[in-house]
Amino acid sequence: MTTTPENSGADVCVIIPAAGSGTRLGEPVPKAFVDLCGRSIIERCVDNVPESLGASIVVVVPADMVARTRFLLPEVTVVAGGAHRADSVRAGIAAAGAAEVILVHDAARPLTPASVFTCVVDAVLAGHPAVVPGIPVVDTLKQVTPDDGGLERVSRTVDRDQLRAVQTPQGFTRDALLRAHADDSGLATDDAGLAERCGIDVHIVPGDPLAMKITTPWDLRIVRSIVGRR
């Protein structure tokens, strides 16, 4: 893949927080180190970062996995993570140097196409301080409340036309990401949530179904099937 004019010459860093245990996956090793058809999930995640970005890569893992990760991925910077995801991202930011654009990418999305990375970087360089990929929600969504009978009662149907399922990599200017992580008083499920909380506008670019997240054994089965057919 060639470098596009939009991201040519940009100083980009990709932070991949991979310090979680992934208990819902039910595997004996941390999620990022689960085998995915001959290579670990984290190795395949790093493989999918497009060379055209010219990006440095920082991988954040549990402290007891740092040495193993450096052996598996000698070409990237590896640092120890913290108790929460936000702590791990902050450790990654500290190792990111002076990159102008920082992407935060879930290790559990090892099939994210190169085009998604490029689209996010281009949007940040076009002047948007926080950019996330997202795809339309296709299921009908119901808001529910507890009911006396032990079931949940539907209180309303949510308009899905205005909803997006958000993926990664999420891209930020360095200043925006530092500002988003300056307040550590609360947790968020993603970095865009931290940005929103401190008043930074977050914009959406098209995501891709292949950027699905491995969370459950069923997800892992699907991704292994996709990789096995390639």
TrEMBL record:
Q: Which Pfam families match?
A: IspD
Could you name the domain of life of the organism this protein comes from? Bacteria
The alphabetized UniProt keywords are: Isoprene biosynthesis, Nucleotidyltransferase, Transferase
Q: Where is this site: Positions MEP for the nucleophilic attack?
A: 160, 213
Site positions (Transition state stabilizer): 24, 31
Catalytic activity as recorded in UniProt = 2-C-methyl-D-erythritol 4-phosphate + CTP + H(+) = 4-CDP-2-C-methyl-D-erythritol + diphosphate
A single GO molecular function, which one?
Answer: 2-C-methyl-D-erythritol 4-phosphate cytidylyltransferase activity
What's its EC?
2.7.7.60
Which biological processes are named by the entry's GO terms?
Answer: isopentenyl diphosphate biosynthetic process, methylerythritol 4-phosphate pathway
Task: State whether keyword Transmembrane applies.
Answer: no
Name the pathway it acts in: Isoprenoid biosynthesis; isopentenyl diphosphate biosynthesis via DXP pathway; isopentenyl diphosphate from 1-deoxy-D-xylulose 5-phosphate: step 2/6
Keyword check for Transferase: yes
- Enzyme kind, highest EC tier: transferase
Assigned protein family: Belongs to the IspD/TarI cytidylyltransferase family. IspD subfamily.
What does the record give as the function of this protein?
A: Catalyzes the formation of 4-diphosphocytidyl-2-C-methyl-D-erythritol from CTP and 2-C-methyl-D-erythritol 4-phosphate (MEP).
Listed name of the protein = 2-C-methyl-D-erythritol 4-phosphate cytidylyltransferase
Q: Which organism is it from?
A: Gordonia jinghuaiqii
This chain is encoded by the gene named: ispD
